[in-house]
Amino acid sequence: MIAFSLPALNASLNALAAVLLVLGFIFIKRGNKLAHRNCMIAAFCTSAVFLVGYVTNRVIAGAPHTPFAGEGPIRTVYHVMLFTHLILAIVMVPMIFMTLARARRGDFEAHRRIARWTWPIWIYVSITGVLIYFFLYRWWPSE
To answer: Is residue 1 part of a domain?
Structure first.
């Protein structure tokens, strides 16, 4: 029987969001607006499912803090990555909504202007979410 792992599921959702973001970027650069739109909506939904699961696990279920077991310089790398991940994850939520809202109402010039900032932050948060999982549970597990 395979044991359920919420951290692994969350990392998978972040990885899927990152793939969808990259595909969306490629599609818009190639002029395929429909595929771009579909990928970005799917990335939004994937990130939303992650966020609901994460917040539910942390707040309602009272999930314990998982300490990082790495030592030396990698500990600093981890904490810098975690800090920037958390700050940018908070910043990106309203940016994503603004970016999507501008696309939805057809204001594509305004959409492009904010997407130039939203996309790199979103991809960074998605990728570092996966890395944080590996740092905590695969590469330097605390148990």
So the answer is: no
CA distances, 22 to each of 39, 44, 103 (Å): 9, 13, 18
Residue 94 lies in a domain: yes
Burial profile 96-107: b = 16 or more Cβ within 10 angstroms, e = fewer = bebbbebbeeee
Question: How many structural domains does the chain have?
Answer: 1
What does the alpha-carbon distance between residue 75 and residue 97 come to, in Å, rounded to a whole number?
Answer: 33
Q: What is the pLDDT of residues 59-87, one digit of tens each?
A: 776 667 788 889 999 999 999 999 999 99
Range of the domain at 40: 6-139
In a domain, 53, yes or no: yes
Identify the segments of the chain with pLDDT beneath 50: 1
Instruction: Tokens for 82, please give them.
Output: 């975690």
131-138: long-range contacts, CB 8 A cutoff, minimum separation 24: 131/81, 132/78, 132/81, 132/82, 132/85, 133/7, 133/8, 133/10, 133/11, 133/14, 134/11, 135/68, 135/70, 135/78, 135/81, 136/7, 136/66, 136/68, 137/5, 137/7, 137/8, 137/66
